[in-house]
Amino acid sequence: MIGKKNVAFGFLFLVLTAVLGPYMVGKVLPDVDKARMEKQAPLDRLQQLKENSFEENLQKLPVEAVGQANTDGVLALNKAFNAQMDITFPRSVHAHGNLEAILNILAGLALCFIAVARLFKQVISWLFILGAVLHSGMLYMLLLGHDWAGKLLLLGPWTVLAALLLLGVATIMGFKGEVVKD
User: Fold this and answer.
1) What proportion of the chain, given as a percentage, has pLDDT over 90?
2) Which one, 53, 55, 121, 138, has least CB within 10 Å?
3) Model's pTM, two decimal places?
């Protein structure tokens, strides 16, 4: 069964991608929550100043104090925004890894029902695995700080698309509806 390696790879890769979830929760989310909490005090002060016509203790605030309050608010918002952006990339890696793991499982199962030349099925099978490694695998490497992975990253999506196209062609050519012997 040529698709067996895709099913096995898919489940193992899914385990790997599942590890990123606790990493995000343990390492990245506390920074996001901390930044969100820290932004509240300067923003609350700005709101209170506005509601009080920029008076404090019944005296008009000097322009410098208003400017400082605005600066504190903007910097707090920027810190919260940057912390939120820091989690966007790991989420993307996690989502792509899960998707490509499931895609390999489904492709492996589909290959079990297709009767075409053995070499054609092998090419499709290996393209799915290679596509996952070159796409989400390289995203993981980038996440870990390996900049060289960016050079290989763009090959992954094209490899997955080629595998999908070839699997579609193979399905048209030889889908049997029952498990075939390779």
Assistant:
1) 54
2) 53
3) 0.73
